[in-house]
Amino acid sequence: MGQELAAGPEVVALAERTAAFIREVVVPIEEANGGVVPSDAVYRELQQAAKAAGVFAPHVSKEYGGHGLDMRGRAVVFEEAGYSLFGPLALNIAAPDEGNMHMLELIATEEQKQRYLAPLAAGDIRSCFAMTEPAPGAGSDPDALRTRATRVDGGWRIDGEKWFITGADGAAFAIVMARTAGEPGDRGGATMFLVDAGTPGMTIGRHIPTLDESLYGGHLEVSFDTCVVPDSAVLGEVDQGYRYAQVRLGPARMTHCMRWLGIARRAQDIAVARTAERRLFGSRLADLGMAQQMLADNEIDIAATRGLILQACWELDQGGHAGQAVSIAKVFSAEAIYRVVDRSLQLCGALGVSGDILLGRFLREVRPFRIYDGSSETHRWSIAKRVVGRHVKNQAQS
């Protein structure tokens, strides 16, 4: 079967409108604030502007006010939105909300969709996804999950500690992964719960200091101590949390790649402009071989990243798990995007290190992506494991 990776005319038109909106409206606000959203007022202003421009919520179905793009369509539009650190927030496609919307639309009940998805898709509220735990709890190894949900009259009692919960400050609700069967280290046995902010027993703790600052709402510690929720808070089926999480994780990894690819392009554009203007040693910097090699390597990394993203998105659009393609794209993207930003900063010299342009901020933002959504090492382990497993299976069948 052939693979159709090219975007249709409607997607191209939306991407073009998004690109214009980002450059004309969003970038000036981003640059004026050093790449860090300063307040809810700016956040609301950006989203209202995106709605007015007709580019808001491209990933959500039309039923909930979006454009209903598939994964390949998202790849094109999200890349344009990601050209600014503020772009994903403006379009309501920032993590973790974008991934949560995707999952809610696919597995939530109608009542849950009206209560949580509809206001989230409209940008009226924010959310968080509470899975990661302090060591030795769940992180790269989800089977290490220690937070537990125990049945009580009319619902569930959640107890446990979470950390690095992105966007928890100000989130209206959390999707909480808790163990409902087995012990830490056992496969399976997890359930997802929708927990409203302010539920007794749920405590939002400290902001964890991190390299990156552009993910709105920070990275926080969240604790659950005798936090009781009703049966209606179960998202999906009991003990099937890991299976449902895959609905979110693969696409969310790809949308991260799409957004950061936009920043890589922005960094390259800054570097190209600088090298074309800067003169030293009797010529333009862009005419020197070492600079040309870095610019060329940036173009190669950007093109290869885009191709791997589209391949993984095509597989996801066909309804497959796409685990291998997603892992390959995630590892390559995270590392290639960092290389592009790093080279661009180097090409800009002292200006790149300074706060006069945002390359230093970009570098701090993209570096954690080699850890977020599964570290490069964890994905490489999974890639190799699948390759060997396929070989063993083929040998047994031959």
From TrEMBL:
Keywords of the record: FAD, Flavoprotein, Oxidoreductase
Superkingdom of this protein's organism: Bacteria
Cofactor requirement: FAD
Domain Acyl-CoA dehydrogenase/oxidase C-terminal: residue ranges: 239-387
InterPro entries per record: Acyl-CoA_dehydrogenase, Acyl-CoA_Oxase/DH_mid-dom, Acyl-CoA_Oxase/DH_mid-dom_sf, AcylCo_DH-like_C, AcylCo_DH/oxidase_C, AcylCoA_DH/ox_N, AcylCoA_DH/ox_N_sf, AcylCoA_DH/oxidase_NM_dom_sf
Acyl-CoA dehydrogenase/oxidase N-terminal domain sequence ranges: 10-124
Positions of the Acyl-CoA oxidase/dehydrogenase middle domain: 128-209
Stored Pfam families: Acyl-CoA_dh_1 (PF00441), Acyl-CoA_dh_M (PF02770), Acyl-CoA_dh_N (PF02771)
Quaternary assembly: Homodimer.
Family of this protein: Belongs to the acyl-CoA dehydrogenase family.
Protein name: Acyl-CoA dehydrogenase family protein
Lineage of producing organism: Bacteria, Bacillati, Actinomycetota, Actinomycetes, Pseudonocardiales
